[in-house]
Design a protein that fits this description.
Layout: H1 17-29, E1 36-39, H2 46-57, E2 63-67, H3 73-81, E3 82-83, E4 95-96, H4 98-101, E5 106-110, H5 117-129, E6 131-132, E7 141-142, E8 146-151, H6 155-161, H7 166-172, E9 175-178, H8 189-203, H9 215-219, H10 227-240, H11 249-256, H12 266-270, H13 287-301, H14 306-313, H15 317-331
Parallel strand pairs: 1-8, 1-9, 2-5, 5-8
Antiparallel strand pairs: 3-4, 6-7
Helix pairs in contact: 5-7, 8-10, 10-11, 13-14, 14-15
């Protein structure tokens, strides 16, 4: 897949085919003017995606962003629509809302899943008809902005619970981009690591350290619940704690030992006592079979790096090597 022929995606460090597909999709929808819903877990880089959409759109107006989670209904109306003098107590002068200030540009509504139902009604009218009414006004105005909505929440789930309007959900996703988590973009880890390492060394005024050869393989086994943002923080922390010319792998292993936020499947959520790491079939496997499967899976996740695989299994490299030798001897009939 070819990389788009412009520099609007330069801030996004990737060679993932999933991300390159998103880039092509952005270029195809950039000039439609329709709302775009950008979803994805915390830390995946949704803010870079909205910047890229604005850059590809060719719009000459301003690029403004507001956090919907921090706005009650009155603040939402005042922030987006503005008000006339005397619209309410304390409104001593006219105030332009973000819609007017972003005229001919892009308005990003971050954390859209936290917007109140009352505010959702007003947003629906804006998205559906392009109309809004400043506080204290008796007539509506026509907005000339591109609406981008961002959330890390499942709007379908919120809709089913009654916390999000069905009609607004459909209107906002005229176009939809779901940014994949870092664990689904493992090919990006070496690129991101080099980028963050160089950035951290410069920011902290330290020489670029040498890197343990098994580190990248180790990093590819980490789930990164905080995604790219967590990865950057992890590298910055390691560089800040660097005491010689070599990056300590123990700093990264300490992250691996921290309790991770459990992500249960729908089945696990309905059956919390069954939220185990292993799901057994009706016929139990033998200990030898389980051990063999664990070794194969650990080596797969560690990209065949025995040192990393041994760490994942909680045994020494010598113990792993011994088990592999025994396994190979049995399979060859010796």
């Amino acid at each position: 897949m070819s990389y788009p022929n412009n520099n609007i995606f330069d801030k996004i460090i990737t060679k993932s085919s999933k991300m390159l597909e998103i880039f092509q999709y952005i270029e195809s929808i950039a000039k439609t003017g329709k709302p775009v819903l950008i979803t994805g877990e915390t830390g995946v880089g949704k803010e870079l995606i909205v910047e890229a959409i604005h850059g590809a759109s060719g719009l000459t107006g301003r690029f403004l962003m507001v956090n919907a989670a921090g706005l009650d209904d009155n603040m939402f109306s005042d922030t987006l629509f503005g008000h006339y003098k005397g619209a309410y107590t304390g409104a001593d002068s006219e105030k332009k809302g973000l819609l007017e200030r972003a005229e001919g540009g892009t308005l990003v509504l971050d954390e859209i899943g936290d917007l109140s139902l009352t505010s959702q009604v007003k947003l629906l009218r804006l998205v559906q008809y392009g109309e809004y009414m400043p506080l204290g006004s008796n007539s509506s105005r026509i907005a000339n902005v591109r609406i981008l909505a961002v959330t890390n929440k499942d709007l379908w789930k919120l809709q089913r619970s009654g916390a999000f309007r069905e009609d607004l959900n459909f209107r906002l996703r005229s176009h939809h981009i779901n940014v994949p988590p870092l664990r689904e973009r493992l090919e990006d880890i070496p690129l991101l690591f080099d980028f963050f390492l160089d950035k951290a060394a410069q920011a902290l005024h330290k020489p670029l350290p040498s890197v343990p050869k098994e580190l990248i393989a180790l990093l590819k086994t980490f789930p990164f619940p905080g995604n790219v943002r967590e990865f950057q923080d992890m590298v910055f922390d390691a560089v800040s704690r660097q005491s010689d010319d070599k990056l300590s792998i123990e700093v990264f292993r300490s992250y691996f030992r921290r309790p991770q936020r459990d992500k249960f499947s729908e089945h696990d959520a309905l059956n919390p006592d069954q939220g185990n790491k292993v799901v057994f079939s009706l016929e139990l496997p033998t200990i030898k079979e389980v051990t063999s499967l664990l070794i194969v899976e650990a080596l797969k996740r560690a990209n065949n790096n025995q040192t990393t695989a041994a760490k994942l299994l909680g045994i020494s490299q010598q113990a792993l090597n011994k088990r592999l030798t025994q396994k190979n001897s049995k399979s060859s009939g010796l």
